[in-house]
């Protein structure tokens, strides 16, 4: 490993460039070649074994999922068939193109299910706020009056600001804001959106677009092409939720809806898990086929991996063969992380030389390989222009379009759903409080200023559950010792 660190250090300093750049390319090819092989072997083994064991409660038998599993399995078989044949660049180019097409098709499917997940999260939040609605109001009021507001808010402050890690603090603040009722006007929310987006002036357009996508997602504004999937139970259920009068539900109707929500959420989780595993395999096949143009090596590791993959495609699972590969992937993943970090610097450092220095090596292809082997499975390989700078006009257009769409959406949503959407949006924006004192005021006002006792109890319970996950404390309504007045 020290050799590669020295190689990158020398390159960054411009030392022995003519010698070190080709060496860098050779190491990159060898590393990613074996990384793709190992990842593909373990991914395929796990998925096929799960199917053989019937994991997933029938998700494999759904028409769409069976189709994409079959397409992925067929692509893998065609790759394995090449293991004992003479190398043919055209074959691997064809397999790469097939993987690219399959990846794009499944990415479109996943966009639909991601949208479904965003909507289920929103509606589940609405239903969660109703869970104490059918209790006696006097008992709810007694329980809430027993809570010491100061002690409770102090617990929340400890939860938010105790971690030293700023990323942990930011995530906790987001989770807390998502749980707290929004007591603000639409215009104040829009003003906060405008201030947030204005910070992107002078930055790159791609970052702005990513952030807008997040805001549109939590606001249920994204409208993917649902024609890429067959009509299914989850889509039908979301349609039903969209037309539900939640306030008109009696207790039996609420319990039935909550049970159905849990069932559909579980079903969606199983389906998305399957697509994640399929996309891993397709990405790894794609990366491997792309890198084959740079190497024809059939190393011992290649032979061992293909031996396992051949068995897998024939539904034979021999753990002892897989055990031979254990402990080998870590080296390639770690080395790849060092090498990939240098890719963006090559063109910045010497753009004229970069296209000439290594036997036709294509930096774009190497970047694609790096992306395909990353954890961002559904990453857009055709990235936007990171060099386009955001100006005030772009921000004003983005703010205008987003707030206009939100205004139209809010007109169609019931009050309880609208408030949930607003809290989801607010959680993705920078906190509206500037310091701990303002945070105390925000929590106290928005939680204990809620006049609906059932909703207040639901909020306090949800916040207590968040804190309980970090073993800070738990609320037991029969014995709230540390929260009693």
Per-chain topology:
Elements: H1 2-13, H2 17-53, H3 63-81, H4 89-128, H5 137-146, H6 149-161, H7 166-179, H8 186-198, H9 205-218, H10 233-242, H11 251-291, H12 300-313, H13 319-323, H14 329-349, H15 351-354, H16 363-372, H17 392-412, H18 415-428, H19 436-448, H20 453-469
Helix pairs in contact: 1-2, 1-14, 2-11, 2-12, 2-14, 3-4, 3-11, 3-12, 4-10, 4-11, 4-18, 5-20, 6-19, 7-18, 8-17, 11-16, 14-16
Structural summary, described in words:
By secondary structure, the protein is mostly helical. It is 71% helix and 0% strand. The chain has 20 helices and no strands. It has helices at residues 2-13, 17-53, 63-81, 89-128, 137-146, 149-161, 166-179, 186-198, 205-218, 233-242, 251-291, 300-313, 319-323, 329-349, 351-354, 363-372, 392-412, 415-428, 436-448, 453-469. Helix 2 runs parallel beside helix 12 and helix 7 runs antiparallel to helix 18. The radius of gyration is 27 Å and the shape is globular. Mean pLDDT is 88; it is low at 354-360 and 475-485.
């Amino acid at each position: 490993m020290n050799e590669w660190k020295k190689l990158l250090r020398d390159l960054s300093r411009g030392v022995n460039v003519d010698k070190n750049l080709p060496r860098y390319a050779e190491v990159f090819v060898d590393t990613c070649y074996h990384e793709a092989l190992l990842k593909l072997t373990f991914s395929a083994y796990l998925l096929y074994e799960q199917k053989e064991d019937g994991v997933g409660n029938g998700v494999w038998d759904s028409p769409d999922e069976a189709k994409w599993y079959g397409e992925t399995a067929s692509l893998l078989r065609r790759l394995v068939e090449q293991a004992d044949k003479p190398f043919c660049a055209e074959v691997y180019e064809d397999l790469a193109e097939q993987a690219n097409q399959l990846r794009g098709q499944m990415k479109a499917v996943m966009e639909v299910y991601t949208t479904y997940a965003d909507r289920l999260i929103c509606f589940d939040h609405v239903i969660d706020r109703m869970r104490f609605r059918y209790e006696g109001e006097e008992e709810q009021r007694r329980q809430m009056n027993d809570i010491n507001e100061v002690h409770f808010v102090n617990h929340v402050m400890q939860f938010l600001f105790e971690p030293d890690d700023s990323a942990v603090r930011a995530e906790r603040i987001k989770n807390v804001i998502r749980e707290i009722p929004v007591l603000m006007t639409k215009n104040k929310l829009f003003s906060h959106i405008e201030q947030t987006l204005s910070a992107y002036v002078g930055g790159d357009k791609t970052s702005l677009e990513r952030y807008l996508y997040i805001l549109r997602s939590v606001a249920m504004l994204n409208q993917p092409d649902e024609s890429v999937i067959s009509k299914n139970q989850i889509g039908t259920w979301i349609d039903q939720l969209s037309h539900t009068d939640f306030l008109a539900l009696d207790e039996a109707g609420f319990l039935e809806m909550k049970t159905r929500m849990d069932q559909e959420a579980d079903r969606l989780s199983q389906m998305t898990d399957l697509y994640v595993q399929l996309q891993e395999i397709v990405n790894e096949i794609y990366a491997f086929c792309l890198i084959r143009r740079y190497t024809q090596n059939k190393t011992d590791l290649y032979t061992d991996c293909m031996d396992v993959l051949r068995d897998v495609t024939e539904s034979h699972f021999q753990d002892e063969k897989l055990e031979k590969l254990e402990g080998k992937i870590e080296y390639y993943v770690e080395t790849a992380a060092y090498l990939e970090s240098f890719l963006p610097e090559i063109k910045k450092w010497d753009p004229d030389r970069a296209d000439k220095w290594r036997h036709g090596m294509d930096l774009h292809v190497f970047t694609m390989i790096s992306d395909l082997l990353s954890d961002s499975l559904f990453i857009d390989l055709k990235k936007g222009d990171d060099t386009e700078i955001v100006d005030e006009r772009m921000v004003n257009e983005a703010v205008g379009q987003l707030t206009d769409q939100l205004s139209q959406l809010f007109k169609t949503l019931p009050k309880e759903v609208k408030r949930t959407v607003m809290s989801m949006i607010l959680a993705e924006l920078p906190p509206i409080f500037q310091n701990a004192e303002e945070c105390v005021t925000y929590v106290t006002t928005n939680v204990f200023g809620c006049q609906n006792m059932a909703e207040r109890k639901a909020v306090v319970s949800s916040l207590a559950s968040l804190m309980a996950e970090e073993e800070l404390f738990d609320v037991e309504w029969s014995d709230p010792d540390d929260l009693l007045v």
